[in-house]
């Protein structure tokens, strides 16, 4: 079988992403073959096409950590031709050929049948939206309710951030969105934010203390770094922070005080190895009670052949919302 793909290859000190006609060796191993309709652009996809990005095990690879579409062949009884599915996480797009190709083959244990979402909706959410949903579900499981007070979302214009704002506002929370983009107010307000603030600390001369004024009932943080330390210092007694990312850095300069004096919980969010049964259950909720209200507003669409420019925007922090990449018919 021959098909089109965007292939990332090492070239000197660089990684080059180019359109290529490839064969079965670019399908990957697995029992379910999928005609890819859509993929998406995530922060991690940007790292996959960056020299020293640290996420790809071996080049050449078809990047794309999300893929949605239609099953065309299955050796596993759980799936049949025509099923609409999404697969993301595990090794997809980093150690197993991913979604930037007309076809992909993956193990059945990585595949989620879609219920209440089209392949385009599912790819619009993709890994970033799923991570937002995991974060919100973790806060709800922790016992967070709208009556507890405002919930902060950092990196609010990002993929995780925009979907988190939408989901939390839809559940009735007062959402405060923290962003570095001065022109993002309209987008974030339309998604449901009650208030938009700058990146943390808002006052660049402020001194970070382990405990500050207790303001947030909870937070969804995909920024990490010093920003996360500021968030932790301002969480109310018994509150929780769902932490998933590191766009602001990996080192968090905090102390144990928020945990031992205010009973604050830091909830770790990992979408990559999240077990398939729980993954399928959360996707079902994303098509039902947790369905985001503004998917069309936060989605930009581009053909997958133009993904390099989108990933450059993500890498330089210029990107907002989610870019869903059209794969079928795009080559
Ligand atoms: N744990 C998991 O399973 C998981 C899954 C998905 C993503 N992630 C991680 O979560 C993070 C966000 O992913 P994403 O796909 O949402 O990325 P994204 O769409 O690129 O959004 C990241 C956002 O972070 C903010 N930001 C960028 N540079 C920053 C800086 N230097 N300091 C503070 N804020 C900065 C920006 O928001 P503003 O301009 O609005 O401030 C940006 O829009 C990444 O670190 C990613 O690796 C983890």
UniProtKB/TrEMBL annotation:
Stored PANTHER family: ACRYLYL-COA REDUCTASE ACUI-RELATED, SHORT-CHAIN DEHYDROGENASE/REDUCTASE
EC number: 1.3.1.95
GO molecular function, one term: acryloyl-CoA reductase (NADH) activity
Ranges of residues in domain Enoyl reductase (ER): 12-325
Top EC class of this enzyme: oxidoreductase
Keywords carried by this UniProt record: Oxidoreductase
Alphabetized InterPro entries for the sequence: Acrylyl-CoA_reductase_AcuI, ADH-like_C, ADH-like_N, ER, GroES-like_sf, NAD(P)-bd_dom_sf, Zn-ADH-like_protein
Protein name (record): Acryloyl-CoA reductase
Pfam families: ADH_N, ADH_zinc_N
Top-level taxon in the UniProt lineage: Bacteria
